[in-house]
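Page 47, continued from p. 46.
Same chain as before, 252 aa.
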Amino acid sequence: MSLAALPIFVKLAGRPVILIGEGEAAEAKRRLLERAGADVVDEAANASLAIVAIDDPEPIVVRLRGRGILVNTVDRVDLCDFTLPAIVDRDPVLVAIGTGGVSAGLAAALRQRLEAVLPASLGGLARALEAAKPGIRGRWPGLAERRRALGAGLAGPLDPLTDHPGDAVEQWLTDATAATSSLLSFYLPSYDPDDLTLRQARALAQADRVFHRGDVPEAILDRARADAIRIACGGMPLDPGAGLSVYLAMGE
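Result:
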């Protein structure tokens, strides 16, 4: 299935964006543009993007498109070259929810749900990971092993959906240097893979090997990485080996 639109993040700081319109809708777009650092200008200015918030937008949209400008037209998805998503801001982490202009209300409802789920410390976690890049590269020189290590960390001690203290990344890196293997165990309440928690799904997606009891269904095991080693066993392994291992059993 093809994408209806390609989501991108555009840096607008100091760049001109045309805004045409008055009233509440136009002012809401102005506030959003100013928050992004854009230079809000009128139709005569040179710009690559424009937002139109008027009752009869067709003539203006035709003129702007004739100049090669990409246009967003408020409440007229048929006259939009781009749409503006609902935003969850955990600077520098941005989560954008778009419906292609089909339902702004749905996007807003999803944003409200995510606002409640994503902790305030998420931005701090991102900045700490950025600051720790030299140490992470030193601990895991290879790109593949570095990705696996980060995946394991974010599936476990650095879970992005959990509030973390400021030294969480530093502590994780210290612990990872002291130990070369980790094992996460999960007792599953259901045979349905759609009942996996986010943490369980992330762990499976990053695991180097999956230890599992015989009654764990294939549909759940298939959520693991394609190259992950599967090991059927009667109980939790005593020596799981290097890297991230996951042990799965059905809940009792």
